[in-house]
Amino acid sequence: MNNLSEILESFILQADKGDLTTAQYPKEWGDLKMKTSFGMGSPARVPWIAFTSFEMQVSKGFYPVYLYYKDLKTLILAYGVSETNDYGESWPVDIMNSSQTVEAFLNKDVPRYKDSFVFKAYSVDVSEGFVKYSSFGGNKVITEKDLESDLDVILGYYRKIVLTETSSQSQVTINRNQGLFYMEKQLEDFIIHNWDKTELGKDFDLIVEEGVLLSQQYPTDIGPIDILAIDKKTKEYVVIELKRDQTSDATVGQLARYMGWIKVNKKVDRVKGVIIAGEYDRRLDYALRVVPDVDVFLYKVDFSLSEFKGVL
Question: For residue 194, what pLDDT is reported?
Fold first, then answer.
């Protein structure tokens, strides 16, 4: 099972039956670990599917998680927080301040995970072996694309937050699949701090209001934009995204969504896009042929070695 809709349907149907087996569920989701649980020894009142970075555990960390409150027929996609061990770091303050805890959101005492924060909530209807979703407390039908989009957004937040948190630690262990992604987070910071010395800085300005930089990780309701800038000549918005450890199609699709969001929410007719990538492949080339106003910048990473002569 690699399709999200199929996974969630199987998860909910199985949770209602009380079956505890999890061998059939994926163990990884892209560059993240994926773990599914229906309980240990006896059925859990709140089965879950968690997505964690490779240095975190469900018992010690913070991570996006699906929580299925069976008695309430409610599936919550949450900013999960471990109940077992304190990790020492958690979700950013702005997320915790702007989001309700599960307990506050449901307005009742819940058996588990009450201190995690709600990102999305869905009402679940199981009928004749099929699962249907609707908006919590409403009648809007939730489609497969809605589910996929919601998960993509929270995973995008998580990936960026985890890299920020782990890079501030004195020792960092980087999994092979995370290495490029980690380096590109440092590249994002490098670009911002050296903006005027880059090719981007020649044509675009960063957005600063009252001395506060707004360009980096510019917030939207579909996820944060890596860098949002302004064209010096035309004064048009420029959406800049780094091609991280994902497919070219995913990168172009993500950039297009952010450009569309800027058009709608900033009420402008034209938006430019920039992709920063380590290499330019054929898939990226084909995709960009039908997406207007997008440029690609390539970066290079140089390494140097110097012999250690000793301290004496």
Answer: 85
- Longest Cα pair distance anywhere in the chain, in angstroms? 77
Residues 286 and 290: their CA atoms lie apart, in Å, by 8
Query: Could you tell me which CATH number the domain at 4-167 has?
Result: 3.30.920.90
- What does the domain layout of the chain look like in residue ranges? 4-167, 176-298
What is the spatial distance between Cα 298 and Cα 115, in angstroms, rounded to a whole number? 43
**Helix or strand or coil: residue 34?**
strand
How many Cα atoms occupy the beta-carbon half-sphere of 113 within 13 Å? 31
Report the distance separating Cα 126 and Cα 133, nearest Å: 9
- CATH number for 176-298 (one of 3.30.30.10, 3.40.1350.10, 3.40.1410.10, 3.40.50.1220): it is 3.40.1350.10
pLDDT digits (tens, 9 = 90+) for 184-216: 557 777 888 889 888 899 999 999 876 678 898
pTM surpassing 0.85? no
**Residue 64 is encoded by which pair of tokens?**
């996006």
pLDDT in tens, 10-32: 999 999 888 889 989 999 898 88
